[in-house]
Amino acid sequence: MKKKTAQQFGKFAAKKSNAAIKEQFKQEKRKEKKEREEFFNKKKAEARAQRPGNNTGSIPAAPVHNRPVSTGTMPLNKFIAHAGICGRREAAEMVKDGKVKVNNELVTEPGHKVSPTDEVKFNGKKIFLAKNLVYILLNKPKDYITTTDDPQNRKTVLDLISRGRATKERVYPVGRLDRNTSGVLLLTNDGELAQKLTHPSHEVRKIYAVTLNKPLEKKDFDQILKGVVLEDGPASVDTLAYSDVKDKTQIGVEIHSGRNRIVRRIFEHLGYDVRGLDRVSFAGLTKKNVERGKWRFLSEKEVRDLKHFGKGR
Questions:
Q1: Is 40 buried (19+), middle (13-18) or exposed (0-12) by CB count in 10 A?
Q2: What is the pLDDT of residue 18?
Q3: Active site residue 178
C-alpha cells in the first residue's frame, strides 16, 4: 500500500483506509456495552429454560470438520503439523533438534517422507494424524504465553481452553502473541491452514489497538508511515490512525508483517513505551461477543473464509 504524506492526511481523516480503521475502533467501543448485555441476557435466558437436573453450563461439542485420511507419503514436518503438535515451521525445528523418531530411528531431516502407517514418535510419544479438525477463537488475556508447553511452568493459552473442556483434540496457537499482548488468537490442529495463515507470502492482515505512555507526536506518526529500520531490517505498517484525536496515546495499527513483537518494536524504536497492546482482528476474525479469557468455536462460514482467503485478507 502506498504511503501517504502528512499533508495528505489533513486531520487524519482524508485517507480512506485510515478513516476506516479509526471508525472501526469507535464502533467497537460504542457497541461493546450493548453486545455484552445482549450476550449475557441470552445466556441467562438459556439457563432459565433448562430444568433442574439438566447439565447446566455444559460446553457445547466442537463442530466436527473431518479430514480425509491420507494414504500417500508426506514430509515429516507436515505429518507432525497434521498430528496437531505445532505448526509446520516449528515442526521442522523440532525435527532438526532431534526430538522425532520414525520407526524407532532418529530423523533430523524435516523433508523425510513418511506414510500414515509409519510409527512417528515426538519426545518419546507416538503421534497420529488428526482426523477431526477443530478451530477455536480465543480472546487472549495478558500474562498467558502462546505455547503448547512451558518448562518454566507459566500459564499458557491452552490452560484457558482446557478449563472449559473445549476439545479432546490436540490444538496449538496459530502465530504468536507475546505474554503482555491480548486479543484475537486462533487455535487449531489444522496444520495446512496454520501454514497458510503464518506464511509471509499470504500477507495476513492484523489490526492492533495500542496504548502508549505518551501522545504520539506528529513527526513520529509520519515516520512510522514512511517506515523505520529495526535491528532485523526495515519495518512498515499498512495503516496508522489515532483512535481518538483527543487522546493521542490511543493508536490503531493495521499490519501484515508476522515478525516477532513488530508493533512494540516500531514504537519502542521511536522512544515510546507500549503500555497496552490488543489484537482486535486477525485474518478477518474479531473478538466480538468473546470476553477476555473466553473462547468460542469458529462457524463453518468462518472456516471456509479462512481456507479461501485471498492475499492480504
A1: exposed
A2: 66
A3: yes
